[in-house]
Amino acid sequence: MELGKIKPLNLDKALQLYFMLERFLPETDGIEILDFIGTIIDNIMSENSTAWVDALTLMMNCSRDYILENIKPEQSLLFFTEGLSVNRILHLRTFCNKVKPDGR
Predict the structure, then answer these.
(1) Which of 44, 66, 76, 104 could form a disulfide with 62 if both were Cys (CB 3.0 to 4.6 A apart)?
(2) Spatial separation of the C-alpha atoms in residues 75 and 69, rounded to whole Å
(3) pTM recorded for the entire structure
(4) At what angle do helices 11-21 and 89-99 cross, to 10 degrees?
């Protein structure tokens, strides 16, 4: 897969992405998209989490093994960043904050 080939997810998968990454998402007030994505990456790395791999499997529609065996770590970070941007993660956070009935 090449950069620029990640496509937006449908709503169901976009919500899966949101809930997969929810605990790593910063608040949205006045934050720029690159800062928002950078904070997500920092939060994931600070917990030594593999959530980014799970998110990539969803965004790239491929297996975890494929990602780990075929994509260099620095390239996977670029795909992750692109996927969050293409899927408008900042807007998704705002949307989910407005419609969550359970106050999570």
Answers:
(1) 66
(2) 12
(3) 0.87
(4) 90
pLDDT computed for residue 2 by the predictor: 58
Mean pLDDT, residues 86-104 taken together: 83
Does the pLDDT value for residue 92 go beyond 90?
Answer: yes
Name 12's Cβ contacts closer than 8 Å, sequence gap at least 6. none
Phi, psi of 94 (to 5 degrees): -60, -45
User: What's the CA gap between 11 and 70, in Å, rounded?
Assistant: 28
Can you say how many angstroms the Cα of residue 31 is from the centroid of all Cα atoms in its chain? 16
Q: What is the CA radius of gyration of the chain?
A: 13
The pLDDT tens digits for 26-71 are 987 888 989 999 999 999 999 999 999 999 999 999 999 999 999 9
Greatest Cα pair distance in the chain: 40
